Amino acid sequence: xxxxxxxxxxxxxxxxxxxxxxxxxxxxxxxxxxxxxxxxxxxxxxxxxxxxxxxxxxxxxxxxxxxxxxxxxxxxxxxxxxxxxxxxxxxxxxxxxxxxxxxxxxxxxxxxxxxxxxxxxxxxxxxxxxxxxxxxxxxxxxxxxxxxxxxxxxxxxxxxxxxxxxxxxxxxxxxxxxxxxxxxxxxxxxxxxxxxxxxxxxxxxxxxxxxxxxxxxxxxxxxxxxxxxxxxxxxxxxxxxxxxxxxxxxxxxxxxxxxxxxxxxxxxxxxxxxxxxxxxxxxxxxxxxxxxxxxxxxxxxxxxxxxxxxxxxxxxxxxxxxxxxxxxxxxxxxxxxxxxxxxxxxxxxxxxxxxxxxxxxxxxxxxxxxxxxxxxxxxxxxxxxxxxxxxxxxxxxxxxxxxxxxxxxxxxxxxxxxxxx
Length: 421
Ligand code: GLC
Fold this sequence. Notes:
The longest helix has 18 residues, at 3-20. Helix 19 (379-394) runs antiparallel to helix 20 (400-414). By secondary structure, this protein is an alpha/beta fold. It contains 20 helices and eleven strands. The strands form three sheets. It has a five-stranded mixed beta sheet. Alpha-D-glucopyranose (GLC) binds at residues 31, 62, 86-88, 133, 188-189, 192, 262, 299-301. Alpha-D-glucopyranose is lined by residues 31, 62, 86-88, 133, 188-189, 192, 262, 299-301.
């Protein structure tokens, strides 16, 4: 090799090295500890691979996060390489996302099949599962015991038990005590809660898998009426403006007997500085009635690579790392994020740190999915109409039968008689 050639080669190698090291922008939600854990895992990957990461925080409210993503993606912007997306978004965002199949190299087979099916749009694996969610009932073990109450099986049981404990605790001097806190703001979180109420009464899934709108039925009316009766009695009026974090704030301060929330609330509630540490029980959400069922909305988050990324292969590598068993285990131990890899539910460390992951395993595997796949690109409009109808009933602005009748008309128009695509 001549001297000139070897200099040329060295320069080429240097150039290749420089071209490979990149700065990836990762967008994560900031709910609970999500941002901190997203950052630490992304930085660990960067350290291992000699790249850089910038983690961009987004609004806690999923509906606001979606609006932001849609803005960035529809502009074809390369500003964000990796997106944390909600389980209900693959159908909405698929056109902007990279097919991860060639990068996953079979790793997808370790994850829950239902999650992979959910993330596969027109044959493309548009996101890798990161953690799964299911709505849970958190309760104050100490207060139930003190007042001789059992964990409620039906919503009527919950209403009675919450009413009783709230009254007794207030009389004993805690005038801030509430019976039940949940997510009542007009956003995707209310869709999750109201979807659970409706399903628990046997009122279906808003739009059935064939595309038929089913929401206008007596069980759904009953479900919304039941929840509306909580507002101002066992739930503060402010619940109409609560997201996950507002509900957790009240419960974790010791001011609520029951709370509906996602698993992440366990780890924070058990934190060293938490006033309710050691006092929390976790159960399935109540049934609509003796003939109803326990229903938990399936939630969860995924990681996807933008089609407009200039470093798609590297971004996919980051996604595969962040969704790996090792990182999912760390996240389960540190912050009670439910793995999407079935084998991890047999990991003794994970089950010891999060007993509910073992005890309520069936709740996670049988959680009910919102009608995102069937309504595809219209899911957000469907959800928006549903949460607004629910919010109108909860706030007393509309009667449940009227609100659902109107919703039925709107959704049928949106779905053009079952042709959602
Ligand atoms: C959580 C869930 C997500 C759900 C959202 C509603 O982030 O993972 O699926 O849509 O809460 O607020």
